Amino acid sequence: MSEESVRVSKATSYASDSIEHISTSIRQLAVAIRSPDKNVYIPALKTLLDIIINDPESIERIYENDIISILNKYIIEEEGEAYVFSSSILHIIGIRSGSVDYSIRAQTATEPMIQIIHSPNEKKSKAGSKTLCDLIEENEQIRNSLLTTGFVQIVLHSLTSNTQIPSQQSSSSSNNQIPTFVKIGLLNVIQKLTDEEEGLQSLSVLIPILEELKQNGEDQLKNKAKRILGLLQAVGIKYSTNQNDQEKDQKIKELENFNKQKDEQLRITAEELHRVEKEKEKEIIEKERLKLEIIKLKEDIVIIQYYWRNIGTWSRHIAGYSQ
């Protein structure tokens, strides 16, 4: 065997061993993250995150070991590191799932920035707002996604929060408090969205709260609200007095977006099931092939044993004929 052949053989063997090692590790981690002991499941989540970052192919084994449902549980029920690791893993899986809908892909790109804007740390929050504004300026799809996939509702929720606290650099705040600098950062993004006149109708739901901020908000919020209201008025965007119709329209849009996302998830799941079925078919075929080989080997062994049992008799007969 040539040196090149040996090298290729070793590399193939190593790759196979590595894949098997990762598969085994993920199976063990799938058990570990189900542990009630925080000292067990936190390191397991961190290791899972490292694996899917460094080995995209490992995502298939995440599905195979039903890890997604456990990650969803941590996102709903846990805080701190469990939430961070679980949401990060799901975020990476979502990005690498290959969605063909650009609005959904753009939403995936903007979600981290929206999270950063809501940070209780003012410096981080401002950086998140500036980055998102820059993305809007550079990419039309980012702008369209923010206007159509629920960002406006997030802004409405944050602006209508009754509790405000002064701007601060500290990273600690009550869960129910929305700092003023967060609201200003969100309004900066809304103002950036109004740089172009098209597609602004979804911002009409903000008009009542903007009017409230214009009258009773803090100075910075008041100025931002005035500016945005002026821009919306200039392009003819008005708040519908028929609240029921507006709510219905909004629900229809949300349902359409939800259905698109579900269709995409179903497509991915169907492809995954098809892949698993193909793998099972291959395993069955391979098992049958090995089974036939074993039968053939057994038959060969029987023939060989028969030959060796009778070879002495045959030798004597041949010797007798010779005499």
What letter string, H or E per element, gives the SSE order?
A: HHHHHHHHHHHHH
Over all CA atoms, what is the radius of gyration? Answer: 32 Å
Main sheet summary = none
The top-level CATH class of the largest domain is Mainly Alpha
Whole-number tally of structural domains? 2
Q: How many runs of DSSP E, i.e. beta strands? A: 0
* CATH fold group of the largest domain: Leucine-rich Repeat Variant
Question: How many H/I helices?
Answer: 13
**From the helix content, strand content and strand pairing, which structural class follows?**
mainly alpha
- Into which percentage range does the β-strand content fall? under 5%
Please report the distance between the alpha carbons of the first and last residues: 50 Å
Which CATH architecture of the largest domain?
A: Alpha Horseshoe
What is the CATH superfamily classification of the largest domain? Answer: Leucine-rich Repeat Variant
The average pLDDT score comes to 78
Helix content: over 70%
The parts where pLDDT drops under 50 for at least 5 residues are 4-17, 163-174
Overall form: elongated
